[in-house]
Amino acid sequence: MKHLAWIAMAYLLLAVISPLLGHLDAQLYAPDVALLTALYVGSRSEALPAVLTGFAVGLLKDGFSMSAPVGVYAEICVLVALMARGLQSRVDLVSPLPVIATSAAASLLSSALFLAFESVFHRSFDNHAEVAATALPLALTTMLVAPAQFALMERIRRRFDQQSRGAMLLRR
Amino acid sequence: MWRDLLLRYRQKLVLLLVLISPVASMYFHGKTRTDTSAIERTLMAVTGPASTLSHDAVGQVKQLLNAYVLLTRTEGRNRDLERENRILLGEALRTRTLAEELVRVKKLCEFKGDHQEFTTVPARVVGRDVSQVFQVVRLKIDIAKSQVQEGQAVITHDGIVGRIEKVSGEFADVMLVTDARSNVHATVPGKGVVGSVSGKGKKGEFGAQFVYLDNSERAVPLASGDAVLTTGHDRVFPAGLEIGHIADLKSTRQGPYHEFVLAPAVAYATLEEVLVVTDYRGASADSPRAADPPKSVEPPKPPDSGKGDGPQSPPMPAKFAEPAKGQDQSKPGAKRAVDPANTPDAPP
């Protein structure tokens, strides 16, 4: 249930961020909320739900994105979720500094993967320089937004955990 | 067997599917196509409404912010314009005041040029008496202040103002002709009457009383609006200057004399620039000083008295020249053209 809530939250954030930054002429500095969702879910969930949530969020971003081939962001988010799942036992993604550092690294990885997938699969893609140039600003904005989004998702997780605990107590 | 395998590797199979399906999708959608796929349509249907809603909402918020920001700018701009407007209004007022002053000064200069027979000194009105009884204004004399002395006449291009009552340095107090203490020898040209004009001494009711002979004695009747001029016989005011005009033909009888209310020729309330008559040719040579005030105003004796020691009336201005028909009436010594001030029951 909480995974659905995270997906819904990502959906809302994706829906709001795109026009908001469009109006502010700051599309280049849009934080990658789908990536952060996948990162958080990967660090807090089992492999299958994390991957499925990452896939769903990535697919939503594919839906909001109007130029990249469908599946690019889904694949990136799935890979990031798997990476976060692998880092679960090594990095503590609770305190802000590790969250910021991991988010920045994940964003840079995401840009690299995006460039790779676009180069391989998108026949008409020729904006390599632009993607490379925006990788760093994207990583900076994403890492700045990461602690806030992680806190929000943590809040949702706690809410659902409390509800499930209450339900278990009621069943007993 | 397949079922057992599926159950055992279900998780890994799903993971593999989730990893492979985007790649397949990328491969499929990365090709140059002209049609929209079912997946794309589905994604557009899912994300489209949210995009529209959020776009509208963000647009409205932005519009609200812009309106607020614009309103703030408008308020600031409005303040600037109001300040500018106040400055411009002040400048316009100053310009209008200067233009009015210029017109007045021009008229005074023309008046001075037309009246070479007397010497004048310009002065400005700087104060008015706050008394309820006296009608006095204060002048500031900027040039030739040493020539200004008590008793001298103060005039404008419109008519007479009063006489200097006190002098102190560059300031002089002028008793207006509307002051109750004022008495000016006067005539109505062409009507064969002379008399004296005395002030009423009321604020807000500028005027003077004109005392003259009985109506039955007059060959040419008086009319409302008739100009009342100075005769020069009082040795203060040069002859031919306007005092005022008859405001109302209704008169108050006092013995053989009638009192008419006169409207002053000069607007005393808005008086700004005046001329002080320091010398004029019409003053008699036996006077100690040309414009010295008489200790007591000595009205002129009628010529038929045979003495002929009264001051001679200077010639009237052309605009007030008497008509030929009434010339015999206006001449000094004409039938019953006796100055009432010269009679024993003349008012003070």
Main interface pair? A-B, 35 and 33 residues
Major beta sheet summary of chain A: none
Order of helices and strands of chain B: HHHEEEEEEEEEEEEEH
Count of runs of 4 or more consecutive helical residues of chain A? 6
What is the number of E strands of chain B?
Answer: 13
Class derived from helix and strand content of chain B:
alpha+beta
Number of helices of chain B: 4
Radius of gyration of chain B: 46 Å
Radius of gyration of chain A: 16 Å
Percent range of helical residues of chain B: 25-40%
Strand content of chain A: under 5%
Structural shape of chain A: globular
- Determine the mean pLDDT of chain B: 73
The structure class of chain A reads: mainly alpha
User: How many angstroms separate the termini of chain A?
Assistant: 21 Å
Shape of chain B: rod-shaped
Number of strands of chain A: 0
SSE succession of chain A: HHHHHH
Strand residues, percent of chain B: 15-25%
How would you describe this protein?
The complex is a heterodimer of chains A (172) and B (348). Chain A has helices at residues 2-23, 33-44, 47-64, 72-87, 96-121, 128-171. Chain A is mainly α and 172 residues long. In chain A, helix 2 (33-44) packs antiparallel against helix 3 and helix 3 (47-64) runs antiparallel to helix 4. The radius of gyration of chain A is 16 Å and the shape is globular. Chain B is α+β, with helices and mostly antiparallel strands and 348 residues long. Chain B contains 4 helices and 13 strands. Chain B has helices at 2-8, 10-30, 38-114, 327-330; strands at residues 118-128, 136-141, 153-155, 160-168, 171-176, 183-188, 193-199, 208-212, 227-230, 242-246, 252-254, 257-264, 273-280. Chain B has a 6-stranded antiparallel barrel. A 6-stranded antiparallel barrel of chain B has the order 6-7-8-12-10-9. In chain B, strand 7 (193-199) and strand 8 form a beta hairpin. Chain B is rod-shaped, with a radius of gyration of 46 Å. The termini of chain B are far apart. The model of chain B is unreliable at 284-348 (pLDDT under 50). Chains A and B meet through helix 1, helix 3, helix 4 and helix 5 of A and helix 2 and helix 3 of B.
